[in-house]
Amino acid sequence: QVRLVESGGGLVQAGGSLRLSCAASGSIFSFNAGGWSRQAPGKQRELVATISSDGSTNYLESVKGRFTIDTDNAKKTVYLQMNSLKPEDTAVYFCNFSPDRIRNYWGQGTQVTVSS
Questions:
Q1: Any idea of the CA torsion for 76, 71, 51, 6, to the nearest 10 degrees?
Q2: DSSP conformational letter for 65
Q3: Residue 92 phi/psi, 5° resolution?
Q4: Is pLDDT at 9 greater than 90 in this prediction?
Q5: pLDDT above 90 for 112
Q6: Are 106 and 5 in contact (CB under 8 A)?
Q7: How high is the pLDDT of residue 14?
Q8: What is the biggest distance separating any 2 CA atoms in the chain, rounded to whole angstroms?
């Protein structure tokens, strides 16, 4: 059983910062990849950032230079540092965690609201 707990969402003014956390617990003995996606009202979910076991990262074009994805040393928590937030970043953010190439788990989502 694997459980993901997300935290760090909230309300922030445009230009502000938030740091999202996704803590994995349970039957996890390795890390293959992690990521963050978001879904705004009336829109499809989009992939925001990913990180692989070798540390390589990929970002949605619109967040490059503003968002950073990383993990803790134990690679059981995936973070998303969000700077220079814009109203269009408002969405529910979901993390995903893959301990290996077979399993992938999703968090419950955390709301991020950026006011103008």
A1: 60
A2: T
A3: -90, 125
A4: yes
A5: yes
A6: no
A7: 98
A8: 42
Neighbour tally for 42: CB within 10 Å: 5
Strands (E), the chain: 2-7, 10-13, 18-26, 33-39, 46-52, 57-59, 67-71, 77-82, 91-98, 105-106, 110-115
**Structure tokens that stand for 40 in this block:** 């705004």
Output the pLDDT for position 13. 98
* Spatial separation of the C-alpha atoms in residues 68 and 55, rounded to whole Å: 12
Least Cα distance to 93 among 78, 83, 107 occurs for 107
- 104 phi and psi, to 5 degrees? -145, 130
29 has a pLDDT exceeding 90? no
The residue to which tokens 């490059």 are assigned: 64
φ and ψ of 96, to 5 deg? -130, 150
Nearest of 88, 70, 87 to residue 79 by alpha carbon: 70
According to the model, what pLDDT value does residue 33 have?
Answer: 95
State yes or no: pLDDT of 75 exceeds 90: no
What does the alpha-carbon distance between residue 22 and residue 67 come to, in Å, rounded to a whole number?
A: 15
> What is the amino acid identity at position 30?
S
